UniProtKB/TrEMBL annotation:
Name listed for the protein in its UniProt record: Phospholipid/cholesterol/gamma-HCH transport system substrate-binding protein
PANTHER family: INTERMEMBRANE PHOSPHOLIPID TRANSPORT SYSTEM BINDING PROTEIN MLAD (PTHR33371:SF4), INTERMEMBRANE PHOSPHOLIPID TRANSPORT SYSTEM BINDING PROTEIN MLAD-RELATED (PTHR33371)
Record domain Mce/MlaD: where: 34-109
InterPro entries for the chain: Mce/MlaD (IPR003399), MlaD_Phospholipid_Transporter (IPR052336)
Amino acid sequence: MSRYLSIGLFVTLIATATVFYVLRTSSTIGLGETYTVYAYVDDASGLLVDSVVRLAGVDVGRLASIELDGNQARLALRIRRGVQLYEDAVVSKATESILGTATVSINAGSGQGALLQDGHQVQHVRQMANVADAVESANQLATSATRLVDEFHTFLQDGETVDALNDIVAVARETAFSVSMLLQENLTIARDTLLTIQSMTGRVDAGADDKLAMVQQILESTAQLTARLDRMVGENESGIVRSIEEVEANLVALRDVIASVQGSADNVSHITGVVRDGEGNLGQLIHDDELYTRAVRITEKAEEFLDATVGMGVQVDFRSELLMDQVETKDRFDLRLVPRTGDRYYTFGLINTPVPVTTEKTVERDVTGTGGTSPEQTVTRTVKQEDEMKFNLQMARVWGPLTIRAGVMESTPGIGIDISPVKRVMLSGEAFDFGADDGIYLRAFGQFYPFYDPESNNPLQWLYFTGGVDDAMDVYHRDFFLGAGVRFTDHDLRGLVGFIPVQ
């Protein structure tokens, strides 16, 4: 099947899902007798005539008309006759989805002032952020990512550049080998120097303590050098060059220390006894080959690391989850980097998640009773859903069907586990936000790949469905969800780059 047909099927799938979502979230109400109030807003984008008007999440009216009055939009709101609005009522625009559709949300007021009648104007309007700005930012990010992939694709197609990259890796390998040989030579020099000191006779003079401290400094410098080489194995390829420079600097320092020891050898001619008999820390280290063995082993690991880290696979994942209780969507975008060995991967992602926000308004008034005048407070709490952008940054290790993940999950520290009992099914669990007052945030979900076959040309091979429970430990916020997603590999992305216009 050609890539053109694959892209067409993908676009058709997204369009079908969009229509289903719009139909699912649309609603109707029976108005009966109504009265009309007016409100002026600076931005009416996303609002349509006959859009729903909600009070505390309940449909109480419709948007009758939208007219331009000067530099503002004049909204005519038809409200059910039984719904009472007060003079301190507040009107705001609520975004329904990432598609830009919106509804009118109204707060009835504190209940202390005069009632609004037919033809009155709502004086308090809360201006909301336009989701188009967020979509434009996401579009710019996608355009930048497209350019980056295109440049990287061009970079890989340039034979001279690839040859230059191979030359750089070869030079790095030769440098590591040269460092290993230089380290062996200097360790041999250090061993010979210490054996020369051992052969000296006489008693220790007044400056023996200072000379022993100098020898101890040599041993500490050598131990630090081997420790840095050991850490170099766990770093990436760019860190190898930095570690090699540190090794060279330490070798220069080591040569200076050895020269100082050789220059002061005449002043320690009386050091014998304990050193010659192999007693004490210094005598034992002279006969120990452990430092030399560790240096050779670390050098071999460094060469293996160079071979293993050249080449990274790229996967792009997008999925949308419908939260059943909130009737809101949680959208995820992930970028996964997979080393050639396939035993681990690294993930960076963005999450657009609905978050309940509670606002409080306190009104204080004086009440006169039999005992005199006393203050009385009325607190009004309003809960609404707002979209919040969070991010993921994880590192995963793979052992066959088992994967362990750790890092940042939804902008908080967390850990996850994935198990693939069969080829097309993945079961996952995540725990994060350990410091929250309402307990750990726990997610459990599964993924099903009905057409999974990485070697096939089927355009639906990376389509998958997901479902599970969100915030399972919190009985008040627990919510079940269903969703779908798509995942592309670097092979698929190279095929799509040629069809994406770059502005």
